[in-house]
Design brief:
257 residues; alpha+beta; Glutaredoxin; 4-stranded mixed beta sheet; two-stranded antiparallel sheet; 8% strand; globular
Length: 257
């Protein structure tokens, strides 16, 4: 199997990975061994890299939480390979991908031969892997405790009702959708959003005075909220915070802007 090919990357424009037929020049190692498919890597770096320097692989589908990981990698400015997993074609249930993530979900990363999944876990891992980037508060500080608190709050309290709304407005067959469930979940998110609205008054970031991985987690959750119509004018502080996050160049790369 040939190693990934290194390409120079222009940070000022959006580049989409391209699926290539097996054997066509320019392809890299496959993300997993799907028949007649190769994946061209998306590589971010200040200059062209040799293939031996590309050690982290992000398994990626645009309509998934993998966008948060891509955002984080862009904030870090480290090289990575983007391995496309087309969930619309069921590639996430292919036996080779199930070796990476046993539930067949995204995202997942491979770093130096180790597979990791769960988006919040990956984000916290990356923040700690590159401490010089200062995307996590120091261990043992009160800010570190708040960092854990708001990451878990975002994932468990804020995202859960949003995921339910998305299921009942976008993904489930019409006969299985429930207006009652949508209303109940919307009411639940409004309670959670009120907590976040109060937290963000007079603040730029969710923890401390600088951007951290907790902002990536919460930004990803608020992106979902905006997509399912739950981030309205009644949350002006939270909406302004979300807009600031989405204006970051790394977030635009992550979300395809």
């Amino acid at each position: 199997m040939q190693p990934p090919v290194a390409f120079p990357f222009d940070h000022d424009r959006w580049v989409k990975p391209i699926a290539l037929p097996v054997g066509q020049p320019g392809g890299s190692a496959t993300a997993f061994n799907l028949p007649q498919r190769m994946v061209l890597p998306y590589i971010t770096a200040p200059a062209a890299l040799t293939s031996l320097e590309i050690r982290m692989k992000l398994y990626f589908f645009q309509q998934s939480r993998a966008t948060r990981i891509r955002w984080m990698l862009e904030e870090l400015g480290v090289p990575y390979e983007l391995a496309l997993v087309d969930m619309m074609k069921g590639e996430h249930k292919h036996p080779d991908y199930l070796k990476v993530h046993p539930m067949g979900s995204l995202p997942a990363i491979e770093d130096n031969g180790v597979n990791l999944f769960e988006s919040a876990a990956i984000l916290m891992y990356l923040a700690d892997k590159y401490p010089e980037k200062r995307l996590a508060p120091a261990v043992g500080t009160p800010e570190r405790g708040e960092y854990y608190q708001w990451i878990l709050f975002a994932m468990t309290e804020a995202e859960a009702p949003l995921a339910t709304i998305a299921q009942h407005t976008r993904f489930l067959p019409e006969v299985e959708r429930s207006p009652v469930v949508i209303e109940r979940s919307s009411k639940r998110f409004k309670a959670v959003a009120a907590v976040l609205e109060a937290r963000m008054k007079g603040r730029e970031y969710i923890v401390g005075n600088s951007f951290t991985a907790a902002d990536v987690v919460l930004g990803g959750v608020l992106f979902l909220a905006s997509r399912v119509g739950q981030l309205g004018d009644d949350l002006p502080t939270l909406r302004a915070y979300f807009d600031r996050l989405m204006a970051r160049p790394a977030a635009k790369k992550g979300y395809g802007g």
